[in-house]
Amino acid sequence: LMIPLKDDNPTKIKPVLTIAFIVACVFVFLRQGSMPSELGEIFVYQYGAIPAVVFGYKDLPQEIVAVPAYVSVISSMFLHGGWMHLIGNMMYLWIFGNNIEDVMGHVKFIVFYGLCGILAAGSHAVINMQSPVPMVGASGAISGVLGAYLLLYPSARVLVLIPFGFFSQIVYVPAGIVLGLWFVMQLFSGGMSIGHEGGGVAFFAHIGGFLAGMALIPFFKHSHVRFFNRPHHRSRS
């Protein structure tokens, strides 16, 4: 288990949209947390992506419908299931999102992020078509960011925390190793989750988002940006 803390990969533009996505997710989470528990649960059903509803197998009670089912695929990206879910996702987005926004510009980044999120949600929904459990979280869209980063900057250094019980170590590790291991873990966990319905982590959303990011990045990056870049690292004292 490696917990990314930051990367050593400078950017040229300010990642205003990466910051905006983080602010939006935090705002929605705080809004949800301010509700009484029953209303908070209804909020998740209103704006989470429910596979059975998206594919037309079931309908929400009319009195709680807030958005069309297809819109919930987008709105679900801004909801989270708890503090750890939110913090983990926002850390990954902050560490890796700024570089992806940097290589394509702000407008393309919005489209790229949204498409990755939609394809990720679709990957989960196809595996669980009749599931009545809402899927929430930015993980799928962020997984697309990770897939793109892997192709662009596999040799970038990522500072990670490696816990060993009471003893932990903080070291720089190539992004290719960090993200490659992360993806392998999603594949393994996704395989183990097949046939188990209910809540939990939407591993196939992570897998679908990651592959979507890898497939889409050639069409979104600036033409002068090469794959497998060697970034100019910051000097460290």
How would you describe this protein?
The structure is a single chain. The protein starts with a strand and ends in a 17-residue tail after the last helix. Strands 1-2-3 form a 3-stranded antiparallel β-sheet. By secondary structure, the protein is mostly helical. The protein contains 9 helices and 3 strands. Helix 7 (139-152) packs across helix 9.
Write the layout of secondary structure elements.
Blueprint: E1 3-7, H1 16-33, H2 37-47, H3 51-54, H4 69-75, H5 83-104, H6 106-127, H7 139-152, E2 157-164, E3 167-174, H8 175-193, H9 203-220
Antiparallel strand pairs: 1-2, 2-3
Rg result = 18 Å
Percent strand equals 5-15%
**Mass-distribution shape:** globular
The string of secondary-structure elements, in order, is: EHHHHHHHEEHH
Distance between the termini: 27 Å
Largest sheet strand order: 1-2-3
Number of strands: 3
| Helix proportion | 55-70%
| Major sheet summary line | 3 strands, antiparallel
Regions with pLDDT < 50 over 5+ consecutive residues? Answer: none
What is the typical, i.e. mean, pLDDT?
92
Helix and strand content put the structural class at mainly alpha
> Count of helices?
9
